[in-house]
Amino acid sequence: MKFIDRDMLHSVWDRLPPPQRSTIVNELGACTREMRRLPCPESTLIGAIDGEPATDRRQQAVLAGPFALELEFNEWQLEQLRPSITLYNRETYAALHRTDHRIVFSHGDRGLHNVMVKDGHVAAIIDWKFSSWHPEHWDVCKSCNFLLDAEEQYLCLKG
């Protein structure tokens, strides 16, 4: 393993001046667009990059799939809702889930904790063990777990 002399974005974000934050947001957006240009192989299943099940670590590590259809993936996601969520809200969430997203290459654990920066620029995106083929909104959904109520951070992770 090699030591890389960089800062983790989550530990320096609050100290960065607005122009550097803006630069990082733009660079992460460019990274996301590059990832989305990777062609999804024909008949790829929704799940881990190696064909293994999908992993959702937002509440706890949950494995399922891989899934042939986005509808199946959405149903799995809805099954994980907390029992305290009312039937009305469950049905509303189900109605809001589209099934026509592009299936794209996803990092799978994108958050400020997995971005390294140096001199106000993105130096690396690390920790690709959860990379996957998922609906195009997946990285944003997963990233929302790491936000500290900052719209700017949302834009940073949204890409």
Largest beta-sheet details: 3 strands, antiparallel
What overall geometry do the principal axes of the alpha carbons give? globular
User: What's the order of the H and E elements?
Assistant: EHHEEEHHEEEEHH
| Average residue-wise pLDDT | 86
Number of strands: 8
User: Rg, please?
Assistant: 17 Å
- Low-confidence parts lasting 5 or more residues at pLDDT below 50? none
User: Could you give the distance between the termini?
Assistant: 29 Å
Keywords:
alpha+beta; 159 residues; three-stranded antiparallel β-sheet; 6 helices
Question: How would you briefly describe this protein structure?
Answer:
The chain has 159 residues and is an alpha+beta fold. It has a three-stranded antiparallel β-sheet with strand order 1-6-7.
